[in-house]
Amino acid sequence: ISPGLLLVAGSFAAFRLLNRGLERLVPPPPSARRNRWKWRNIWTSLAHSALPSTHCPSPCRFCLHPGLFEDLVGTHPPGAHSLVAVSVGYFLEDFVDMLCNQKLHQSWELLFHHSVVIVCFGIAVLLHQYVGFALVALLVEINSIFLHLRQILLMANLVHTTCYRLNSIINLGTYVVFRIATLAWMTHWLFLNRENVPPVTYAVGTVGMAIMTPMNIILFYRLLRSDFFK
Question: Which intervals hold domain TLC (predicted)?
Answer without folding.
Answer: 34-230
